[in-house]
Specification:
Shape: globular
Number of helices: 0
Helix content: under 10%
Number of domains: 2
Structural class: mainly beta
Strand content: 35-45%
Number of strands: 11
Largest sheet: 5 strands, mixed
Distance between the termini: 79 Å
Radius of gyration: 20 Å
Length: about 160
């Protein structure tokens, strides 16, 4: 008669959801895999980031309602991310999984560190500005689906 023993590992994933103001430094590379005649697409890499915490929800409370329709960020974010909690006046670091960034405002800083206005617009043919708000808007026929945002950059 033989005996058999086994070990089982049970992994429980719990998430903490945070909402706050995200500030970061990024670079972007042109994505030539996307086929488009009139647009250029870029892969974003956020290499330095900080979040000023505004609210926290535990796993059993679920995600913030305003974040449910937002797609996870498709680029890369340097980990861990520095966080600041103004209630306790403390800094700490977190590793973000599936981060969602809503309504980003972009500006361009040159390689040498000088700020350069990013002349851009939400639609083609309108006056360009130094910055533009980006939102993930619903499709006309389906309020649950979000269209990827687009900006037009003046060269």
């Amino acid at each position: 008669m033989s005996s058999f023993t086994t070990e089982e590992t049970v992994t429980t994933i719990t998430r903490t959801f945070i909402k706050g103001t995200f500030t970061g430094k990024y670079n972007a590379e042109r994505n030539d895999e996307r086929d488009s005649r009139h647009s250029e697409f870029y892969r974003m890499n956020i290499y330095s980031a900080e979040i000023r915490i505004e609210a926290v929800r535990q796993h059993n409370e679920g995600d913030f309602p305003e974040a449910l329709a937002v797609k996870p960020f498709g680029g890369t974010i340097g980990q861990p991310v520095r966080c600041y909690d103004p209630n306790s006046n403390t800094y700490f670091e977190l590793t973000l999984n599936e981060p969602k960034i809503n309504d980003p405002v972009l500006s361009l800083i040159t390689k040498e560190g000088a700020k350069k206005p990013l002349q851009c617009a939400r639609t083609y043919g309108v006056p360009y500005a130094d910055s533009v708000d980006i939102t993930w808007e619903s499709f006309r026929d389906d309020a649950e689906r979000r269209a990827n945002p687009a900006i037009y950059i003046k060269d």
